[in-house]
């Protein structure tokens, strides 16, 4: 039996398509910002996930909706470059915690000015309240996706 169409389902399809376009634009902008400091968008993404607290590679992957294997490759590269390190994980003997080193924090911090300028340009016609509303909807959709996965 085919599920009936719904207006919300049709709009969600449009949201998904625009999200793909946004993601592509965000990645392109991130590559431009990170290149001068010797990072890539992917490296920034993984380092950014652990700026506040160390996480396991699996934890980073879950948080970002990526595969553990892709995060593992980037994490190992960042460790090799001296931008991050693995720490013992008291909760799990084999799944080490991952965190930026001082050099990793410095690299991410050096992006702040460019990132703030970019964010201000991109949000010039969108207010903070509108963005908070969009973020709320995105958070609810992520929760629904997670629940749908089982």
Automatic annotation (TrEMBL):
GO terms for molecular function: DNA-binding transcription factor activity. InterPro entries: HTH_MarR-typ (IPR000835), MarR/SlyA-like (IPR039422), WH-like_DNA-bd_sf (IPR036388), WH_DNA-bd_sf (IPR036390). Pfam families: MarR_2 (PF12802). It comes from Umezawaea endophytica. Gene3D superfamilies: Winged helix-like DNA-binding domain superfamily/Winged helix DNA-binding domain. This is MarR family transcriptional regulator. One of its GO terms (biological process) is response to stress. Residues 9-143 form the HTH marR-type domain.
């Amino acid at each position: 039996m085919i599920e009936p169409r719904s207006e919300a389902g049709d709009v969600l399809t449009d949201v998904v398509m625009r999200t793909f376009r946004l993601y592509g634009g965000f990645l392109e902008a991130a590559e431009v910002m990170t290149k001068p400091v010797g990072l890539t968008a992917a490296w920034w993404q993984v380092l950014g996930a652990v700026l506040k607290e160390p996480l396991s590679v699996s934890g980073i992957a879950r948080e970002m909706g990526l595969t553990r294997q892709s995060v593992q490759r980037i994490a190992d590269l960042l460790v090799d470059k001296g931008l991050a390190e693995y720490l013992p994980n008291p909760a799990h003997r084999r799944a080490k915690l991952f965190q930026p080193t001082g050099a990793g924090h410095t690299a991410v911090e050096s992006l702040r000015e460019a990132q703030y300028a970019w964010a201000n340009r991109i949000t010039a016609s969108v207010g903070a309240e509108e963005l908070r509303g969009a973020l709320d909807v995105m958070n609810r959709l992520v929760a629904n996706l997670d629940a749908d996965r089982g």
